[in-house]
Amino acid sequence: MHxxxxxxxxxxxxxxxxxxxxxxxxTLRQRLENNHIVVxxxxxxxxxxxxxxxxxxxxxxxxRILDDITDIIGVRIITFFSDEVDVISALVERIFEIDWxxxxxxxxxxxxxxxxxxxxxxxxRIPASLCTDPTIPQLNTTRFELQIRSALQHVxxxxxxxxxxxxxxxxxxxxxxxxxxxxxxLELADEQFSRIRKEINDYRRNVQSLVANxxxxxxxxxxxxxxxxxEHKPFKRLADKIATINQxxxxxxxxxxxxxxxxxxxxxxxxDVERMRLDYRDSAYQLALIQLAGTGLDIVAYSVTLQNxxxxxxxxxxxxxxxxxxxxxALYGESSYNAPRAQRIYQQAQxxxxx
Length: 355
Prior knowledge:
CATH architecture of the largest domain: 2-Layer Sandwich
Structural class: alpha/beta
Strand content: 5-15%
Number of domains: 2
CATH superfamily of the largest domain: Beta Polymerase, domain 2
Number of strands: 8
Distance between the termini: 99 Å
């Protein structure tokens, strides 16, 4: 009899549950965005009447009233990496009131066949300090379940839902053993993804520190290190000097297209790029004087600095017009314009004795 009463109350409050779920999801989405946290998924649901009926048939004796059931509203946050679960859990604890007695950290379970269910389960309420709404009478008293787990845990849980312990058909032992071994592999993969990401982030921070401190010879040249180097505006002084030739405005475009050029030129470290900057900056400026003379250009691209430095080095190293054509091909792709452009610049360089 009391199960029917619970179902009746559920039907009356169904729309309210949907509203509470939406408040929770909107709040989480905003807070995650504010804290620059990117997640793989954020989803919610209100338990269907069919699902609730099944739950009551199995465990109705445990519940006196509808509010005794804490997972009528369920919300799940899916992280890319397992170590992000703790970061997001700290955020959740600051946002919602946590029912600690009914919350559980299933990550502490050691059974190998429970990998997909090793999520962090909070039972929460929306505090009045966060949100109140007279149109939702029980907004601040209704509890909801919030799960946080990694993407691999989520995928495994979904795959095992129809084959694992929630199935109506018992899985043969040999198949269960195979599933358990796979669970162990996925758990190891989850841990390794987090470890590798941490090591990559540590590497990037170390590179940024080396670049910031001017230890260029210790920094290998790659896309990340070149980007960090460019962020310090190493060519800004030369760019400003070139812009004054025509009293032009400086347009700060990206230098990243020149990364492949530098690699093709045989540069191995950021120190090689820095030496080119120091050794050839005067010649690069002299070349710019020839290029801009009489043009009346009132906008100069920031990248002209690195382009001219590369031109000077290519010519000083004796690679001539062929080297310039290869540089333009690396920048702009194969084109019939590359050869005439290279010839024009070669002639300009001859005027200032670069060759």
